[in-house]
Amino acid sequence: MSPNELTPAAPAEKLIYVVEDDLAVARLISGVLAEYQFRHETFRTGHAFLQRLRQQTPDLCIVDLGLPDMDGMALVRQIRERHRCGVIILTGRGHVGDRVMGLESGADDYIMKPFEPRELVARVRSILRRCEAPGEIGDAARQRVAHFSGWRFDVARLSLYAPDGGERPLSAGEGLMLLRFLERPNRVLPREQLLGQHDISPFDRSIDVRISRLRRKLEDDSYNPRLIKTVYGAGYLFVSSVVWE
Predict the structure, then answer these.
(1) pLDDT bracket for residue 203 (50, 70, 90)
(2) Domain boundary at 86, 115, 134, which?
(3) What are the two backbone dihedrals, phi and then psi, of residue 77, each rounded to the nearest 5 degrees?
(4) How many CA atoms lie within 13 A of 8 on its CB side?
(5) Which residues contact 160 (CB under 8 A, 6 or more apart)?
(6) What is the CATH number of the domain that holds 65?
(7) Long-range contacts for 188-192 (Cβ within 8 Å, ≥24 apart)?
(8) d(CA 31, CA 37)
(9) Domain that residue 94 falls in
(10) Hey, which of 84, 141, 147, 153 would disulfide with 172, CB 3.0 to 4.6 Å?
C-alpha cells in the first residue's frame, strides 16, 4: 500500500513516544498520529522521555537527533540496549554518514525533515508490523530452543546466548530475523522474506544494516562471514547446521 492510499485505521492499543524539541514539528507529528488513531505522547527533552520510558515501554519511538539536553544518537542506543520497541530517527541532518550511524545505533528507520506526513505514517506502520511479528509466533514454536555453531537461541524470549554462556541482547527485529534464518538454514533467503514484507523498496538498505548488527552480535566478521553470507543479487545465506529442542 502506498502512502497516498493510507486510511485512518490503527490498532488503538499501539503506543508511540515522540521526542521532538521543535514545538511546530511536534504538533505536526502529533496531529498526524491522532488522525490515524495512534495513541501517542510527546516529549521535548531526552530526560523527560527517559523518565517516562522507565514507567512504560511504548511500541515505537520517534526520536529527533537535535535535542537540547542530550545527543539523539546516544538516546537511540539507550533505547535499543534496554527495550525492544521500534525506533524511527527523525532529523534534519542530511549527511549519509548520519543516516548510517543512526541505523548502526539501532534505529529501524530514518526520516529526513521536511517530511510528508503520510510517508511518516507508512513508515510507522511498517515498523510496527515488524515489531509485532514475534507475538504472532505460535505456541509450539515458542517452546523451541535452537543450537547452532556453539550458540543457543531461545525463541520464547528472543534471547541469544554465546558459546561462553553470555547473553547477547537482540532487538525484536534482530531476533525475528535470526529466527527466519534458523528455520531455513543453508538456503538463500531474499531480503523481502527476511523483513517479512513484500513491498519494500529496492533502495531500502535498512536490511543490510540489520544484517550487519546481527553479524556483530554473532561475532561474525562482516568482511569474511562464517554464518551469514551475502549472495549478491539474491539475498542472504545462513551457513550452519541447526538442532532444535
Answers:
(1) very low
(2) 134
(3) -65, -40
(4) 8
(5) 151, 152, 153, 154, 167, 168, 169, 170, 175, 178, 217, 218
(6) 3.40.50.2300
(7) 188/231, 188/234, 188/235, 188/236, 188/237, 189/235, 189/236, 189/237, 189/238, 190/234, 190/235, 191/235, 191/236
(8) 10
(9) 3-134
(10) 84
Predicted confidence (pLDDT) per residue in 153-175, tens digit? 998 888 899 999 999 888 777 88
Mean pLDDT comparison of 88-92, 196-200, 229-233, highest-scoring range: 229-233
pLDDT given at position 193: 78
Query: Considering the chain, what is the average pLDDT of its residues?
Result: 83
* DSSP character string of 182-200: HHSTTSEE-HHHHHT-S--
CA-to-CA separations, 166 to 24, 143, 171, 244, in angstroms, rounded: 45, 21, 16, 20
Cα distance between residue 168 and residue 170, in whole Å: 6
Q: Is 157 within 8 Å of 166 (Cβ atoms)?
A: no
> Which amino acid does the sequence have at 59?
D
In the chain, the number of structural domains is 2
In degrees, rounded to 5, the angle at the alpha carbon of residue 206 between the alpha carbons of residues 84 and 163 is 55
Beta strands (DSSP E) in the chain are 15-19, 39-43, 60-64, 86-91, 109-112, 145-148, 151-154, 159-161, 167-168, 188-189, 228-231, 235-238, 243-244
Within this chain, do residues 202 and 168 fall inside the same structural domain, yes or no? yes
pTM: 0.66
The predicted structure's pLDDT at residue 127: 83
